[in-house]
Write a structure and sequence with these properties.
It is built from 13 helices and 12 strands. It is 45% helix and 14% strand. The protein folds into 2 domains: 150 residues, Leucine Dehydrogenase, chain A, domain 1 (Rossmann fold), CATH 3.40.50.10860; 142 residues, NAD(P)-binding Rossmann-like Domain (Rossmann fold, 3-Layer(aba) Sandwich). The structure holds nicotinamide-adenine-dinucleotide (NAD).
């Protein structure tokens, strides 16, 4: 069971740190290193906590600069999934996987199927899904080797890509934050900077431009920028300039740790609300710093839970879009609850949200403890 000590886990994993020290400090149950010479697969699967149920979380394929970076990422992401699934009201634990490699160049059917075989060998303790660098089609390949995969395409009876529901939940959380800060949930006329216009970022642009927000976008890939800028009325900015914009809301929708010592003092926004996982480089230091600077930060694992809510409906049978939509809409009220507590008590919003998630895990564990 999780304990309060794990709430203090904020430091980056150090090279000198033993792996079991990290697992013990962060509270992981199991970490599996998967390797296959023929396909070139190098993957790590991390199960953080399975008190609420099987550990559900996506697989990310990324060109990590080192194995340590990949390990740190999967440990942080899987821990985040424990809190995300718990606060989202799902009966699922937290897990995540990473595949080391360039998703645009290195991904093959055989590699994905080999990854699927490793997932299968965990016998349902970990359920995989789509994350950065992955597509619905990739889930289909993985599904050829294991049934423990979610986020399958709708044409095979799955819930399809989780990104639209993630974007919808992010939009809900953004509106709740606007209500708290500006007294109205309307985002019309609000200046919003979106960092990363991938699967989720693009749908968020769609919601926001329809509502009449003034949207700024950036990405590291020119083709992504062109595609989105051709479809929507947005202003394109350089990927470094995104931190210096005079905006109401900064929406991190790329990778994690973009709220850090180097960026926080540059941000001029009132609200940080985006879909990226692990946005705060250090939950304690940078969560506190947001509060000190008067920036309302919407906890990442709360605001971006729409996608996992969507795929979770597949776990118990047929995809149920109506349930997923209604459950995703609860992000609005949950965000208000967290922000009300955080601001009235002057406490780090991320920590407040973690406490709510942890409370649910511990409450349900008590129920499970009896016959
Ligand atoms: P994606 O890979 O489709 O999009 C990410 C985009 O960010 C890409 O276009 C990439 O080029 C861009 N990017 C990367 N680094 C950047 C940088 N430094 N500056 C600007 N752009 C950069 O991924 P996605 O599915 O849209 O997910 C985005 C984020 O949301 C990730 O952190 C992911 O873990 C998180 N998330 C996604 C989902 C989902 O349903 N897909 C659910 C929950 C959380």
């Amino acid at each position: 069971m999780l304990n309060i000590k794990e709430l203090e886990t904020t430091k980056e994993l150090r090279q000198t740190y033993g792996l079991f020290d990290s697992l013990s400090e962060m509270g992981h149950e199991q970490v599996v290193f998967c390797h296959d010479t023929h396909t070139g697969l190098k993957a790590i699967i991390a199960v953080h906590n399975s008190v609420l149920g099987a550990a559900l979380g996506g697989v990310r394929m990324w060109n990590y600069t080192s194995e340590q970076e990949a390990l740190t990422d999967v440990l942080r992401l899987s821990r985040g999934m424990t809190f995300k699934n718990a606060i989202a009201g799902l009966n699922l634990g937290g897990g995540k996987a990473v595949i080391i490699g360039n998703p645009r160049k290195d991904k093959t059917e055989a590699m994905l199927r080999m990854y699927g075989k490793f997932v299968k060998n965990l016998n349902g303790k970990y359920l995989t899904a789509e994350d950065v660098g992955m597509t619905e089609k990739d889930m289909e390949y993985i599904n050829m080797e294991t049934k423990y995969v979610t986020g399958l395409p709708t044409y095979v009876g799955g819930s399809g890509a989780p990104a639209p529901m993630t974007a919808y939940g992010t939009y809900m959380g953004m509106k709740a934050a606007a209500k708290k800060v500006y007294g109205s949930e309307s985002l019309t006329g609000k200046k919003i900077a979106i960092q990363g216009v991938g699967h989720v970022g693009e749908v968020l642009v769609d919601f926001l431009t329809k509502e009449g927000s003034k949207v700024f976008i950036t990405d590291i890939y020119e083709d992504r920028i062109k595609e989105v800028a051709n479809k929507y009325a947005v202003e394109v900015v350089d990927k470094e300039a995104i931190y210096d914009l005079d905006v109401d809301i900064y929406a991190p929708c790329a990778l994690g740790a973009t709220i850090n010592d180097e960026t926080l003092y540059r941000l001029k926004c009132n609200i940080i609300a985006g879909c990226a996982n692990n946005q705060l480089k250090d939950e304690q230091i940078h969560g506190d710093e947001c509060l000190k600077r008067g920036i309302v930060y919407v906890p990442d694992f709360l605001i971006n839970a729409g996608g996992v809510i969507n795929i979770a409906t597949e776990v118990n049978g047929a995809y149920n879009k109506a349930w997923a939509t209604a459950q995703t809409e609860t992000i609005y009220e949950k965000t208000l609850t967290v922000l009300n507590t955080s601001l009235s008590q002057g406490r780090n919003a991320q920590k407040v949200a973690m406490e709510i998630a942890l409370q649910r895990i511990n409450d349900i564990a008590k129920i499970k403890a009896t016959y």
